[in-house]
Specification:
CATH topology: Glutaredoxin
Number of helices: 5
Keywords: Oxidoreductase, Peroxidase, Selenocysteine, Signal
Shape: globular
Number of strands: 9
Radius of gyration: 15 Å
Strand content: 15-25%
Order of helices and strands: HEEEEEHEHEHEEH
Protein name: Glutathione peroxidase
CATH superfamily: Glutaredoxin
CATH architecture: 3-Layer(aba) Sandwich
Structural class: alpha/beta
Distance between the termini: 36 Å
Number of domains: 1
Pfam family, one: GSHPx
Family: Belongs to the glutathione peroxidase family.
Largest sheet: 7 strands, mixed
GO molecular function: peroxidase activity
Oligomer: single chain
CATH class: Alpha Beta
């Protein structure tokens, strides 16, 4: 990992074709006032601010991920397939946020997460491990839940909860962990 840091541009660490971006949102901590995901920023792994407004004009899929979950293999495989099919042709962007809040299924640190993602040949953006529920929940995730609440409450119930964001940065759909990424293709088509 340290060798990779020396070889890559300042601000990003890339393992194969994906970016690892730290998810310390500092732009809009008051998520209730946010108008879109573009009101948030993320710090790169080297501490540089990365505005989510960089995703303007792109349909985004935002998902909480874990490397040791029973849903991991299917979701990572299908997220890669979606990226391959739609990233260049339609501009789909996938933002994955590792989270260890569900049975400790993402126990590793940044190096372990990068190593896992490398083995999975991940091409989409991966952010620093965060909380998605509770007082320490990341502000972006508080915003996502506010915009698209769940069936039995707003909280995230498990790994691989998925939010679709349109080209204007608005959260337009929420899908539970049991929804496979490839089953969302028709949903994406509405927003491309």
């Amino acid at each position: 990992m340290n060798i990779l840091k020396l070889l890559l541009p300042v601000g990003f660490v890339q393992v194969r074709n994906f970016s690892v971006i730290a998810a310390t949102m500092s732009g809009n901590d008051n998520y209730k006032e946010a108008k879109s995901i573009y009101d948030f920023t993320a710090k790169s792994i080297k501490g540089e601010e990365v505005p989510l407004s960089n995703y303007k004009g792109h349909v985004c899929l935002i998902v909480n991920v874990a490397s040791k979950c029973g849903l991991t293999a299917t979701n990572y495989k299908q997220l890669n397939e979606l990226y391959d099919e739609y990233a260049d042709s339609k501009g789909l962007r996938i933002l994955a946020f590792p989270c260890n809040q569900f049975n400790g299924q993402e126990p590793g640190g940044t190096e372990e997460i990068c190593s896992f993602a490398d083995r999975q040949k991940v091409k989409f953006d991966i952010f620093e491990k965060i909380d998605v529920n509770g007082d320490k929940a990341h502000p972006l995730w508080k915003y996502l839940k506010k915009e698209q609440g769940g069936i039995l409450g707003d909280f995230i119930k498990w790994n691989f909860t998925k939010f679709i964001v349109n080209k204007e940065g608005k959260v337009v759909e929420r899908h539970g962990p049991n929804v496979d990424p490839n089953s969302l293709k028709n949903n994406f088509e509405k927003y491309f």
